[in-house]
Design a protein that fits this description.
By secondary structure, the chain is mainly alpha-helical. The protein is built from two helices and no strands. The protein is rod-shaped. The two termini are about 20 Å apart.
Length: about 160
């Protein structure tokens, strides 16, 4: 074997090592693609989980503030009904109803915003997951086929076809 790279069909020692290194690099790239696919799938799934946790948290807050608003309305109604001869000052109850209603409305606006953003995320994440589940495995398979072909070609002695 010659140590240069110019030996006709004889690749030579350095050329053979370079082919081995190239095949090893392709194998490493394949492994990286597989790790990337699983890691990115986990990221997309965690994103969906975070959205659902946010929705649940906002729903629980809305429920608590709705209950509080109903309680404030009941207290206001009781104040207005129990005035007797003198008209009772129910302004504190009126403010409580207004403030509680504003807080509930604020939470509902956040729920709507989260729903809109989640819908956009869902579309993008769905397309990304499709890529991860179909296109990337197809690319991985093609890369494995190339690696297998190169390894088979490497085992063929020089001068044979």
């Amino acid at each position: 074997m010659t140590k240069g790279g110019s030996g006709g069909t004889n690749i030579g020692y350095w050329g053979t090592n370079r082919v081995h290194a190239d095949i090893d690099a392709l194998k490493g790239f394949h492994e990286a693609l597989v790790r990337f696919r699983y890691a990115q799938r986990g990221v997309a799934e965690r994103g969906g989980d975070q959205i659902e946790m946010t929705r649940a948290s906002l729903a629980a807050k809305a429920s608590r503030w709705q209950s509080r608003l109903e309680q404030c309305h009941a207290e206001l109604d009781a104040c207005r009904a129990g005035g007797g001869e003198e008209a009772a000052d129910c302004s504190a109850y009126v403010r409580a109803v207004e403030q509680t209603g504003e807080r509930l409305e604020h939470i509902r606006r956040w729920q709507q915003r989260v729903d809109i953003e989640a819908s956009e995320f869902g579309g993008t994440a769905g397309a990304y997951l499709d890529l991860l589940d179909s296109d990337l495995p197809r690319a991985e398979s093609q890369l494995l086929a190339i690696i297998t072909s190169l390894e088979a070609a490497r085992r063929v002695p020089a001068g044979e076809t």
